[in-house]
Amino acid sequence: MTAEKDWIKDLVVYQIYPRSFYDSNGDGIGDLPGILQKLGHLEELGVNALWLSPVYRSPNDDNGYDISDYQDIMEEFGTMEDWDRLQEACQKRGIRLIMDLVVNHSSDEHPWFVESRSSRDNPKSEYYIWRDPVQGREPNNWASAFGGSAWEYVPERGQYYFHYFSKKQPDLNWACQDLREELVAMMHKWADKGVGGFRVDAISYLDKPLDFPDSALPPQPDGYSFPDCLAGRPGTHAYIQELNRRVFAPRQLLTVGEVSAPHVEELCRYVRTAREEFDMAIPFVPPMVEIDTWSPQKLKRDIEESWQALREDGWWARFFSNHDKPRQVSLYGDDGAYWEVSAKFLAMFLHSLPGTPFVYQGEEIGMTNLKLPRIEDYKDPDTRNRYRQLLLSGLDPEAALARAQLESRDNARTPMQWDATENGGFTTGRPWLQVNPNTRTIHVEAQRQDPHSIFQCYRRLIALRKEQPVLSRGDFAFLETGPGEPLALTRTLPPEGLLGIFNFSRQPCQVPARLLERAGEPLLSSYDREGGWQGPALRPYEAALFRWKPV
Ligand code: NOJ
Ligand code: CA
Question: What does the buried/exposed string (b/e) look like for 320-341 if buried means 16 or more CB atoms within 10 Å of the residue's CB?
């Protein structure tokens, strides 16, 4: 990050998934006027950036991540005038508006693709990736991220096109200069309209190998293999650098890349200042769903590793949740007996780390996963595919459904719970996706009035960050702790310091006296409802923040 971009360190980003935030006209679908009406919620939380998942025109195969017009708004969400009003309102409140930028692929209903598929020699012929059949079949064995082959045959051209995501999301051909000019012009138009930055979707796949070799990875249950030479090619980095040079830097945009980063060196390639790519990244690492692979110790190791790699030069997007992951309190916490304390615990842990905190809608009230009774109830194409693959791998339907329920991206996409009424105050109509019945008890209205709610914990954390530069700019370290001891971290910006201790478990644990030697006044506790820090033991999911004397 360059010195001029120091303001990034003061951001707290709130992510809205527009379809599920607030429905203003009773059609069951969240919309832009709905977001405008609820902007006070963001203001009350204290966030100063809003990342909007895609609101562009789209036939909605993947909830807007399939764009058919980059310069227009999805009809169900409203009009460009609604967008302008939202942008103005954000600006007035000091909230930077970040748009999702989906340029790895478009919709197959985008006029570019409609033209491109019509013949081999039309003016948009090269805008997408076309290959001849090989021995009457797909050009190679690559699997799409959403299941099945990554290739789809088009009789008009007698060729296949490449789609890393669904077949309604054909990949754009970044090697085509005319296409790049169109995309750059599009980005400038949004910058002209006052966009404050972009969260750049699935950006690791722009450059494709010309020869598309077969993947050597083991096949998925349906026989296709995920590509082994697609993510992070040098050509992709060159395209990102071109965007930075031509758009991001001159327009002073905040940029967050969604990147495939199987190791920390790869993450660094996207965010080191000298690379001139992104300000920060949302990295993902296969396996995408961490249900079986995460642990507090692994989390600690990953945080430590990325801190060491980027502390001198770089920055971190900090998140436990987004629209592609199960709900954080269900995945990393406990959505049963320790629901409230574990939700606060996760918030306190994340907001204590160096980097920019991201809050995904609903996490600030501890929204949980929802098990839908039948696979047909799931709207997410990825969930349906996962279910198919699980059946193919030999699971019986009940076991496959149970697994899909845990993993489904729809867990994070159920409508926002504003109040205790049947549809959670989200809509007066029929919601596009079922509202979690626990809206009877988990909702914004109750938590706004309750001084000890999860919502108030988020407000305090965000306020604390504004009062204490040690959180946004301080040095960071984990203190050494062993098995059975809590995680402990410090932030320091002499003369200020902060200590956090975290019992990431359902069992109580002792706090070794050495950890508290330089601890001062307690600042925040996940057990504030029970009177806060009592020491010297920590209760299940107890998190405590203290002032701390740096030596
Ligand atoms: C990542 C997005 O976050 C996800 O929701 C989407 O399905 C894929 N990219 C494809 O755009
Ligand atoms: Ca609506």
Answer: bbbbbbbbbbbbbbbbeebbbb
Which ligand has an atom closest to residue 64 CA?
1
| Nearest ligand to the CA atom of 21 | 2
Find out whether 229 and 209 touch, Cβ atoms under 8 Å: yes
* Cα(281) to centroid(ligand 1), Å: 15
| Nearest-angstrom CA–CA distance, 284 and 157 | 35
The answer to whether 496 and 470 have CB atoms below 8 angstroms apart is yes
Nearest atom, ligand 1, residue 65 CA: 11
Calpha distance 361→38 (Å, rounded):
12
Distance 102 CA to ligand 1 centre (A): 8
Say if residues 258 and 281 touch (Cβ distance below 8 Å): yes
Residues 6+ apart with CB under 8 A from 403: 386, 390, 395
The protein residue with its alpha carbon nearest to ligand 1, atom 4, reads 324
User: What digits encode the pLDDT tens for the residues 415-461?
Assistant: 999 999 999 999 999 999 999 999 999 999 999 999 999 999 999 99
CB 205 within 8 A of CB 175: no
The torsion angle over the Cα atoms of residues 437, 442, 445 and 451, rounded to 10 degrees, is 170
421 alpha carbon – ligand 2 mean position (Å): 18
62 lines ligand 1 (CB under 6 A): yes
**pLDDT tens digit sequence for 350-374:** 999 999 999 999 999 999 999 999 9
Q: Does residue 161's CB lie within 6 angstroms of at least one atom of ligand 1? A: no
**Residue 3 scores a pLDDT above 90:** no
Residues 6+ apart with CB under 8 A from 157: 117, 119, 120, 130
Residue 445 designated active-site: no
The residue nearest atom 2 of ligand 1, judged by CA position, is: 201
Q: How confident is the model at residue 535 (pLDDT cuts 50, 70, 90)?
A: confident
**CA 152: distance to chain centroid?**
28
| Tokens (6 digits) for 220 | 């998925």
- The catalytic residue among 82, 100, 138, 258 is 258
Rounded Cα distance, 146 and 133, in Å = 22
Q: Which ligand is nearest to the CA of 322?
A: 1
